C-alpha cells in the first residue's frame, strides 16, 4: 500500500491537538498545537547528528502541508 508523505490525524481524546504524521523515513508525528514531536524510529548517535540538521526542514514541511490542507478545505 502506498501512503502520502504526510497525513492529518485527530483524536477526540485530544480535542485541541492537530497531528501531522510523516510516513517516510524518518517517520514522526508532530502535534502542531504545541510542536511536540514523537519520532517513530530508533536512531544511532550518528543518525541523530544528521537528524538535527534535517528535522527543522521536515517540521517546516509538515506545517506547510497542514496550512495547504486547511486552505483547501476553506475553498
General description of the model:
There is one protein chain. The model has no long low-confidence stretch (mean pLDDT 92). The chain has a four-stranded antiparallel sheet, with helices on one face. The protein has 75 residues and is an alpha+beta fold. 40% of the residues lie in helices and 21% in strands. A hairpin with a 4-residue loop joins strand 3 and strand 4. It has one helix and four strands, in the order E-E-E-E-H.
Architecture blueprint of SSEs:
Elements: E1 6-9, E2 19-22, E3 28-31, E4 36-39, H1 45-74
Antiparallel strand pairs: 1-2, 2-3, 3-4
Quick summary:
This protein is α+β, with helices and mostly antiparallel strands.
- Which shape, going by the Cα principal axes? globular
Portion of residues in beta strands equals 15-25%
The spatial strand order of the largest sheet comes to 1-2-3-4
> How many helical elements?
1
Q: What does the average pLDDT come to?
A: 92
Task: List the uncertain runs.
Answer: none
* Helicity, as a percent range: 40-55%
Radius of gyration: 13 Å
Largest sheet: 4 strands, antiparallel
Structural class: alpha+beta
- In whole angstroms, the N-to-C terminal distance is 29 Å
Please count the beta strands (DSSP E, at least 2 residues each): 4
